[in-house]
């Protein structure tokens, strides 16, 4: 059965661990969106893998890993990850496929990301500064875009870079008074990338369709979370790709009806990095407590994450959006020790109560949460492996989440290790 794993909050839900577990039964793992802004942590034994671009399935030797057309590839980061895995005895030789249509993140994208954010002051988006937005903008703009396929043709790439760099230099000087970019240095870098990554660049759409016909088990790994989806998230405080399950088709060329199982991943509470509305945020002792217990600091930027109660209005919306049929709830162990646990079951916006998630950030920023309060639990859940052994208060919390979200929870995370997972049927 093909499965897509997608985050239902603002990213960092623990998808890496879920993908790692499901990858045991998969033949191929596919990343279809985002770039090095993502951060997936997988812990195997005593070894911790922090991946940004590589699908989390990479940590399983022999697994075929596809970086599809919807991803924006920073070759420096990718090469570091290939090297990092190799240093831990895991080779990507012969099992990594990068789409020739994936776009390349270049130094000027990262520069533009940083300069633009600095110029926005308090209105900044709070990006990861990885050049993601500017790279996707060039993709949509078409005239100044570089794709992985271009790395295979240095003569034409040189001409392309000259015209792009001339344009960017004029723009950056006028807008930000920035120093010019050196086109020769950039071109030399591309030639080095071409040598080391050229062997991995293929037509991944053709590969995936052949794999579907051959009845291979394919696991599609979403990056970020659906609330950061460019079209359906908390715009403008979103990322620049379709981070919900809706991004699957455009991101890798596989129609959604070929994917039977859509597994949404959530944490037992909410977190967010960067700016933007967050109705259930607890900018207080509760939020600080969750941050410290859950180690809620960004994998990519190290920034402290904003923390709050579980928001069932937001998750019911993102679950519907993605056609999610099951939920995996991670970090359940983190909440142990609270006298009571809350979850947001409705919003009050301009005096009216609603369970619909507003489409516009202005309305969302005025939303006040209507909370359901349930008893907390003090037991340490990290050693529990059967659903039946969970404390009654935990079961009650899970049932309350299911009631307001409307999707069954089938998998629970009670710690960072592969083994710390509970299945609920
Ligand atoms: P960008 O994707 O770097 O442009 O950042 C846009 C917004 O998405 C910012 O609020 C980032 O903090 C957020 N973001 C991007 N990637 C991730 C992620 O993997 N986890 C959590 N937030 C992310």
Structure, explained:
The chain has 425 residues and is an alpha/beta fold. The protein contains twelve helices and 20 strands. It has helices at residues 15-22, 75-87, 107-120, 132-141, 154-176, 183-197, 204-213, 248-252, 285-293, 312-322, 361-365, 392-405, and strands at residues 3-7, 28-31, 40-44, 47-51, 64-67, 72-73, 96-99, 103-104, 201-202, 218-225, 261-267, 270-272, 306-308, 310-311, 326-330, 340-349, 352-354, 368-375, 409-413, 421-423. A ten-stranded mixed sheet has the order 9-7-5-2-10-1-11-15-19-20, sandwiched between helices. Strands 14, 16, 17 and 18 form a four-stranded mixed sheet that branches. Helix 3 (107-120) packs across helix 4, helix 3 (107-120) packs parallel to helix 5 (154-176) and helix 5 crosses helix 6. The longest helix has 23 residues, at 154-176. The model has no long low-confidence stretch (mean pLDDT 95). The protein binds inosinic acid. Inosinic acid (IMP) binds next to helix 4.
Question: What is this entry, summarized?
Answer:
It contains 12 helices and 20 strands. It has 425 residues and is of the alpha/beta class.
Give the strand order of the largest sheet, numbering strands 1, 2, ... along the chain.
9-7-5-2-10-1-11-15-19-20
* Total beta-strand segments: 20
Low-confidence stretches: none
**Bound molecule types:** inosinic acid
**Largest beta-sheet characterization:** 10 strands, mixed
Helix count, DSSP H or I runs of 4 or more residues:
12
Strand content: 15-25%
| Whole-angstrom Rg | 22 Å
Q: Kindly state the mean pLDDT as a whole number? A: 95
Structural class: alpha/beta
Question: What is the helix content?
Answer: 25-40%
Shape: globular
Q: Termini distance?
A: 18 Å
């Amino acid at each position: 059965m093909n499965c897509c794993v997608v985050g239902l909050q603002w990213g960092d839900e623990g998808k890496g661990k879920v993908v790692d577990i499901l990858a045991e039964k998969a033949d191929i793992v596919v990343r279809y969106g985002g770039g090095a802004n993502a951060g997936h942590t997988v812990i195997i034994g005593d070894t911790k893998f922090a991946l940004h671009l590589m699908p989390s399935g990479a940590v399983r030797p022999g697994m075929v890993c596809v970086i599809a057309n919807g991803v924006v590839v920073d070759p420096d980061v990718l090469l570091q990850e290939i090297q990092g895995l190799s240093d831990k005895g895991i080779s990507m030789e012969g099992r990594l496929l990068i789409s020739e249509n994936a776009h390349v993140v270049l130094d000027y994208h990262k520069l533009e990301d940083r300069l633009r954010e600095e110029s926005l002051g308090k209105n900044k988006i709070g990006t990861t500064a990885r050049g993601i937005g500017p790279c996707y903008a060039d993709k949509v703009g078409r005239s100044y875009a570089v794709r992985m396929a271009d790395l295979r043709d240095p003569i034409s790439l040189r001409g392309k870079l000259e015209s792009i760099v001339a344009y960017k230099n004029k723009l950056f000087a006028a807008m930000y008074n920035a120093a010019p970019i050196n086109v020769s240095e950039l071109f030399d870098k591309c030639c080095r990338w071409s040598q080391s990554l050229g062997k991995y660049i293929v037509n991944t759409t053709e590969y995936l369709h052949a794999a579907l016909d051959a009845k291979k088990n394919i696991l599609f790994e979403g990056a970020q979370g659906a609330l950061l989806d460019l079209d359906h998230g908390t715009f403008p405080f979103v990322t620049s790709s379709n981070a919900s399950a809706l991004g699957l088709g455009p991101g890798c060329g596989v129609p959604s009806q070929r994917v039977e199982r859509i597994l949404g991943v959530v944490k037992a509470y909410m977190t967010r990095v960067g700016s933007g509305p967050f109705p259930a945020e607890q900018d207080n002792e509760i939020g600080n407590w969750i941050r410290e217990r859950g180690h809620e600091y960004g994998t990519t930027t190290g920034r402290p994450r904003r923390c709050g109660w579980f928001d069932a209005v937001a998750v019911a919306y993102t679950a519907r959006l993605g056609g999610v049929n099951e939920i995996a709830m991670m970090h359940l162990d983190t909440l142990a020790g609270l006298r009571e646990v809350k979850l947001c079951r409705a919003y009050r916006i301009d005096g009216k109560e609603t369970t619909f998630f507003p489409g516009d950030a202005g309305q969302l920023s005025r939303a006040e949460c209507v909370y359901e309060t349930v008893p907390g639990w003090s037991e340490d859940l990290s050693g529990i492996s059967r659903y039946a052994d969970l404390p009654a208060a935990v079961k009650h919390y899970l049932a309350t989440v299911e009631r307001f979200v409307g999707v069954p929870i089938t998998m629970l995370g009670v710690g960072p290790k592969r083994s710390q997972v509970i299945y609920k049927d």
